Amino acid sequence: MLNGLLRFIGRLPLTFNHRLGAGLGWLTSLFSARHRELTRANLDQYAMATGTHASDAMLATSFREQGKSISELAVSWTAPLSRQHSLIVENSGWEGVDAARAAGRAVVFAVPHLGCYEIAGRHIARNVPITAMYRPPKLRWLESAMQEGRDRGNATTVPADAGGVRSLLKTLKRGGAVMILPDQVPGEGEGEWAEFFGKPAYTMTLLPRLALAADAAVFFVFAERLPNGKGYLVVTEPLPEPFSADRAVACRQMNAMVEQLVRKAPTQYLWGYNRYKQPAGAPPPPTPHESTP
To answer: Which of 17, 63, 82, 95 could lock onto 25 through a cystine, CB 3.0 to 4.6 A?
Structure first.
């Protein structure tokens, strides 16, 4: 029944899908105090770091956009690939990927929790075979639908464990391409504290380590939602210089790139995600004077 519901929502025009998602986001903001407070706190942090103002209107828009990121899953997991590709009405920056591939470089795609990251991944896989790492959803019944939907076309998924990391490295060593969410909070011992919009965030070291090990080109990608369900604009931006061998500095480089994309569509970032949490067993965040500049 639940799979049937996903398929039904996935068949809706994107305009209606987004209206449904916006309503879901509004309801969540009403009934989940934790989600409401976390979104507000993270938006306030963004505003303080960028010298802007997190207005009530911006907060309300953020709730609606987060709801859309949920309703869109029905499209990305169940809709035919041809329909998903048709929703991408414009893309910018992909020529850099073509140049890197033509030069024989392996490629790491960093896709943050911004806009419709599932559609961003679908756009990448349409152009380049990719191996992507995933974590099982908290709702276990969703996993089969998620895997069915993602393992299509040129996309292959591997679990976020040691075996999955080995698969990613093998792919890169063969000159292939991998995709990772760079702003996923890592587990104990798998990250470094690095500033994200002016506040220390425990940041994964895996992506920089893989890129350095394979001398891979790195591109940051996101799919911006266009107004009124008009589709998506996919933005692709290269890492301007190779990652530092210093892990803390590399993590700051990575966070700076995510920040750069978030500034393009700040209300479409997943502010309800606890980006600044301290994972169990991880060291405490540094005091302000100790943070990586």
So the answer is: 63
